[in-house]
Design a protein that fits this description.
The chain has 237 residues and is an alpha+beta fold. It folds into three domains: 43 residues; 35 residues; 115 residues, Alpha-Beta Plaits (2-Layer Sandwich), CATH 3.30.70.60. It is built from six helices and four strands. Strands 1-2-4-3 form a four-stranded antiparallel beta sheet, with helices on one face. The longest helix is centred in the first third of the chain and has 82 residues.
């Protein structure tokens, strides 16, 4: 039996075309929905990353500021330490008043000081001129380089020139011996001792040289004792 289709072919094609178009529209809508969702997700992530980036940048700026402040504090600390060390180095290891009191305390009876001069000089370096001493020169330079760096103020030597009068050479010799035994002085030597007449009296005018001992440290008790002895001698005089 024959099946006779009374539906026109144009109608069938039109229905199929509508179905295809509808399918395309649905697929297009699905794709657009997916693209829209992806775009929204990407935007949300971008905003979240931007906020995190701003937070990280703010923390980095705070850290940089803290590091800068720390470096400034370190620089100020080094400057303060340098100033403190320089001040400590420039302070007199032995006050001049204490040195003068010690020189006065050791004066024998009848002896007086006429002058006192303090001079700071750099120590003389040993010179080696002959060819046979080149090894010694190299060794000295090597030893000097191995030593820790010391400030110029600590290397200075304090030279003392003393001038006075005494009844006789016995007092001059006694004064020389006392200063040689002093804890403050080193290299005490007699430079000159000559006769001098003052008001029909004969005296011995003498000149001594000495050096202040290096690395000497007096305690407060030592300074007080020297000053008390000086005041006592001035009172007795």
């Amino acid at each position: 039996m024959l099946n006779i289709n009374f539906v026109p072919d144009d109608y069938i094609q039109s229905n199929e075309s509508r179905r295809t178009n509808l399918m395309y529209l649905v697929l297009f809508a699905v794709v657009m929905a997916g693209l829209s969702g992806s775009f929204i997700t990407i935007k949300i992530r971008q905003r979240s990353l931007s906020a995190e980036e701003k937070l990280v940048n703010a923390k980095m700026m705070q850290a940089e500021e803290a590091i800068k402040q720390f470096e400034e504090l370190q620089t100020k600390r080094k400057e303060m330490m340098k100033t403190a060390l320089t001040t400590a180095e420039l302070l007199e290891p032995v006050p001049k008043s204490v040195l003068l009191a010690s020189l006065t305390n050791n004066l024998p009876a009848g002896t007086s000081l006429l002058g006192l001069k303090l001079t700071q000089k750099e120590p003389k370096k040993a010179s080696f001129t002959t060819a046979t001493n080149k090894y010694k020169t190299a060794q000295a330079q090597k030893a000097e380089a191995a030593q820790p760096e010391v400030s110029r103020e600590k290397l200075l030597e304090t030279h003392i020139a003393i001038k006075g009068i005494a009844p006789s050479d016995l007092q001059v010799a006694a004064y020389l011996e006392r200063l040689s035994n002093s804890t403050l002085l080193d290299n005490v030597a007699l430079v000159e001792s000559k006769e001098r007449e003052i008001k029909d009296a004969i005296f011995r005018q003498f000149k001594l040289t000495a050096m202040l001992r290096k690395d000497i440290h007096l305690t407060g008790e030592d300074i007080d004792r020297i000053r008390v002895e000086h005041e006592k001698m001035a009172f007795d005089f």
